[in-house]
Structures are given as structure tokens and as C-alpha cells.
Amino acid sequence: MDLATLWFWIVGFFFIGYFVLDGFDFGVGMSLPFLGRDDTDRRVLINTIGPVWDLNETWVIVAGASLFAAFPEWYATLFSGFYLPLLLILLALIARGVSFEYRHQGKGLRWTRWFDGMIVVGSAVPALLWGVAFANIVQGVPMDADHTYLGTLLDLLNPYALLGGATTLLLFFTHGVVFVALKTDGEIRSRARRLATRAGLVTIVAAAAFLLWTDLAHGTLASWLLSAVAAVLLIAAVLANARAAERTAFGLTAATIGVAVLALFSALFPDVMPASNDPANSLTIANASSTPYTLTVMTWVAAIALPVVLAYQAWTYWVFRRRITRELIPAT
Fold it and tell me: Which parts of the chain span the membrane according to its record (predicted)?
């Protein structure tokens, strides 16, 4: 395997880390209207991700930086052609982050509800648009010989991409609600488990439709096999959740996301962004990658830094492993 191909899969790994970790953040944020019956419930939900949400978001920065350094042509085409959706994701993430900090300022019920609404929207918009973006990457977009995107925003909102967005929205929601069941106790834990079962059943249908469409149109043997594994993992996650095995269910939803992203990258390989109007204009691993020297330096940096980052993040989750209950929330 050459370094360019290696970095294609490393970029995929970083996006898997981001979708698994920030995915349950998005799910917790979207669950506020469903599980937060009062302000104490909503504070319990927010506190489940309070120590880790900002750390989880750093994965998208690492993924974007790796994409820029390893595949500058891919980065340029993606961020110029998908400028508006990516800008909406950025604004939503900013609004969500601000809301986590400002909702606790104690300026009244209206103030708190306003920022709670921003958390919900700031979680749902990225969960939807990341699916839309990756579906368009796999499907391909119209490009000229200079790899400039020729379409419009409406071209990106095609049926396949919208199904991809609905799938990531539902998958992250289920992933997040399972995390709530894992991190809480009492009545809110029971409600989260029931909601995760219902959401999981809908997610199975949407994910199956999206992966089947993907493989029929763009699939390889590897993507077919990975899609089948993802389907089995998701069904097993829903069954584990129904049996109140939250830890197992959360591990299975995380594995579902990871394997599903691998299936998308396998369907994409060896392209990084196909041209739907003319295959000759497609970006591939070969014509989009940086020089061998750049990739070599990046490989050494990743080999040294990545284990440290993973160890630090694992330690953070271990420190904050305790369940959150209503009794632990101080009165305001």
C-alpha cells in the first residue's frame, strides 16, 4: 500500500472517530425535547456530554487538517463546492457550543428555552448535512477539467443525498439516546431506553435503504460486505438496548457508525470525489494527493501523536464515567 492510499484510509479513520464521538453529542442535543420534561432533566442530559463535547469536536478539525495536507485537491474542491452546507455546519456548531455555556446564566425561563432550542438545532443541522455531504461525495458531483464544482446547492439536495442525511440524523439520534441511557439512572434512563428502541427501528429502515441504494449504484465487494456487517450491528444494538444492556448497545451503535463509514469509503475507493458528468474529471487518490515527502512527514507525525491523543481521550472518558442523576444537579 502506498502512502497516498494509506492516508485515504487514515482520513476515513478520523471521520469515523468524529462521527462516533460527536455523533452521540448530536444525539443528546436532539433528545432534549423528547427526554427533557423539565429544566433539571435537560441539565442532566447536557451534563452527560458536558466534560467531553468540545474534545469530541476536535476530531473534525483533525480530519479537515489531514484532508488539507494529504489531499489538497480534494480539500479545495470539497470546501469550495460544498461551501454553503459546510458553512451551515460551522454556524450550527458555533451556536451549539455557545448555548452550552450561556444557557446556565440564570436570566429566566425564556432565556434558557432559547438556548435549549439552539442546542437542538445546532445538533440536528450537522447531523443532517454531514450525511448529505458524504452521500454527494460517494455519488459524485459535476466537475470541470480543473476539478471545479459546476452545480448549485439544489443539486446537492438530491433524493439520494437527502436519504443519506436522514440516515445520519436518525443514526446519531439513536446513538445519542443510547448514550443517555448509559450515562443516567432512574426515570430518565428508562425513558431513554424506550426512545432508543423506537428510534432504532426507524433507523434500521432508513440505514438499510441508504446502504442498499449506495451498493446498488456504487458498491464494491468490500462495501457490500461492510454494509451487511453494519446492518447486523445496528439490529444487535437495538436488541441489546431493549434488554437494558446499555454498554453493549452503545458499543454496537458506535461500531455501526464506524463500519458504515468504512462501507462508504470502500464504495468511493479509489476515487476521492467522482465527477458525475465525466469520469475523466474525477479526483482520485493518485491525482489529488500531496507529494510523497509530505505524506512521509505526516505519517511520522501521526504515528507519534495519534497514540497520545487516543490515550488522553480514553483517560478523559474514564474520569467522567460516573452516571448522572437528578440528585446530582444542584438547585438554581
Answer: none
